[in-house]
Amino acid sequence: MENNTQSMEEIMKKAEVLIEALPYIQRFNRKIIVVKYGGSAMNNEELQKNVIKDVTLLKLVGFKPIIVHGGGKEISRWVGKVGKEAQFVNGLRVTDEETMEIAEMVLNRVNKSLVTMVQELGVKAVGISGKDGGLLRVDKKYSDGKDIGFVGDIKEVNAKILYDLLDNDFLPIVAPIGFDEAFDTYNINADDAACAIAKAVGADKLVFLTDVEGLYKNFEDKSTFISRLTASEADKLIESGIIGGGMLPKLNNCTSAVKNGVSRVHILDGRVPHCLLLEIFTKQGVGTAIISDEDNLAKGLKRDKFCGN
């Protein structure tokens, strides 16, 4: 009898989870969500499968997800195999012609691996790079005036390609490679690519899977965790100099996306199993959400990050 009671309690808990998720499923049905996938979640097979399962589930319950992936650690590994040393300036990979060839090879390999994983779960996926159909056109990017090689600064996104794939029930998976007016190939920072794509397609959500829990006012003090902030509050954090390292360009991308029409930007710890589902389908959430000042005002500073209930 005790086992039956326990079993019923477990079943009821599952039902409660589904009921809690219902308003979010209704709210974001047929809405576009861009997921920037990188960090440790790409290098751990179990976490990788969890992320792909999460995105696939979003697709099956009515979302329109787009994955933009990186591959930095794998690129560095292959660069090392040919006897070169990976070099970075302000977080951007210095990319000579040989490194560009390696990066394109690795990113395309990662891309097709993700396509396979999605299709194994019964969802149609198409893997493309920013070169396909002129998806991502770039100018040469400089870092503080320094030439860092074939690193691209996105100037144009051909969103029609992505709309066509979404309208035909495909899940697009994008490798961050583009070309310039001379059709030279360029490596693109995956965060930059995800942000540009989210703005171009008018995504309701942009999610960054990272190796940190979210934003902190003081990373050494876990009590300073920020679960939600507005774009203007994010700007103040940036101006204060509190945010540094790799999180600074990421936060700049977040605020840029919100100011250009993306409803919500989320910074999540990709090392947490199913963090994507926990953030989107629960009231509490597990990461940091960045919203527009107007949206914050319209919702009367209420805590629910998604429905405004």
In terms of topology, how is this protein built?
Layout: H1 2-27, E1 32-37, H2 45-60, E2 64-69, H3 72-81, E3 88-89, E4 92-93, H4 97-120, E5 125-129, E6 136-143, E7 146-157, H5 159-167, E8 171-175, E9 177-179, E10 185-187, H6 190-201, E11 205-210, E12 215-216, E13 225-226, E14 228-230, H7 231-240, H8 247-259, E15 264-269, H9 275-281, E16 288-291, H10 293-298
The strands making up the biggest β-sheet line up spatially as 5-8-2-1-11-15-16-14
Shape: globular
User: How much helix, percentage-wise, in residues?
Assistant: 40-55%
Summing up helix and strand content along with how strands pair, one would put the structural category as: alpha/beta
* H-E string: HEHEHEEHEEEHEEEHEEEEHHEHEH
Rg, Å, rounded: 20 Å
Q: How many strands appear in the DSSP assignment?
A: 16
- Number of helices, where a helix is a run of at least 4 consecutive DSSP H or I residues: 10
Terminal-residue CA separation: 39 Å
Unreliable stretches covering 5 or more consecutive residues: 300-309
Beta content: 15-25%
Query: What does the main sheet amount to?
Result: 8 strands, mixed
Mean pLDDT: 86
In words, what does this structure look like?
The chain is α/β, with parallel strands linked by helices. It is built from ten helices and 16 strands. The chain has helices at residues 2-27, 45-60, 72-81, 97-120, 159-167, 190-201, 231-240, 247-259, 275-281, 293-298, and strands spanning 32-37, 64-69, 88-89, 92-93, 125-129, 136-143, 146-157, 171-175, 177-179, 185-187, 205-210, 215-216, 225-226, 228-230, 264-269, 288-291. The strands form five sheets. The chain has an eight-stranded mixed sheet, sandwiched between helices. Strands 3-4 form a two-stranded antiparallel ribbon. A hairpin with a 2-residue loop joins β3 and β4 (92-93). α3 (72-81) crosses α4, α6 (190-201) packs parallel to α8 (247-259) and α7 packs antiparallel against α8. Mean pLDDT is 86; it is low at 300-309.
